[in-house]
Amino acid sequence: MSKSKEIRITGSLVLLLIAFASLSIFKNEPVILSYPSNWPEPTYDFSNNNLTTEGIYLGRHLFYDPILSIDSSTSCSSCHLSFTAFTHVDHALSHGIYDRIGTRNSATLINLAWNKSFMWDGAINHLDMQALAPISHPAELGESIENIAQKLHKTNRYSRLFKQAFGDSKITGERILKALSQFELTLISQNSKYDSTMANQKQFTTQENKGYLLFQNHCANCHTEPLFTNGNFEYNRLPLDSTLNDFGRMRITNNSEDSLKFKVPTLRNTEFSAPYMHDGRFKKLSEVIDHYASSFTSLNLSDQMVLSDTAKTDLIAFLLTLSDKKFLFNSQFAYPQE
Question: Model-level pTM?
């Protein structure tokens, strides 16, 4: 059986805050994140943002609060739904304030502690900065972090939550972003059938095992186990969309070799994260598989992926073993009812 690794994030143990009128106790309750022993070490530097129960609780409230948008209509969760692998499902491109349509399909928020870059083009290189992109995007939240801090400061609830998380009620952009990161860092998906099989607790069916072999032969180079992404930027064989005019990674590097390269998404919970690709053009897993099979063949590449209909079904059967319903329906990740 595979043992779980643990990350103990130690914060201040207990700070006594003596006010003029009363004595209050501020506790930073450290949080332990566990993950399977065959996983690599996280790349996120927890020493600069200690995870605590209070910080995660604050971040969860911020994640679901439309106050982060300029018209208080749209929250982070509007495009990242917990029960659909923290992405949207009913449209190809993200939707934001004033019914505006974004420029890309929203990415899943899964296992972010292992990510070195964020966004489809890697425009952001640190999780603590990632939220600034959708916050400032005119078609998403359309707001500034400074205005958000001012709005939160006017509420009694957030003054209390920030005091619980940071020791005083001061609300800053840095604290907002770190609290969001704390919540998002807890979004670890590790309880799929695949994980149980790797831990020798379950077994693949014959069909799933055939699909696993196909996956290892044709897909694992980019969708590397156990996180099911290599974290790199790859050419996904899609032609340039003349409407979106999205050149992917090249937009950031200005290197022509990065043209039409996009970050490899994780395949964990892919059953629930349609539509697929950076522009959301495919609605079904079968369409994605057909795309790669046809594109590799038409380009006459050495690593052709020629699959029969039965093989495609087997491959999908394996991909379904990456579904983690315990993660998807975890009440600790859902809208806070308190």
Answer: 0.90
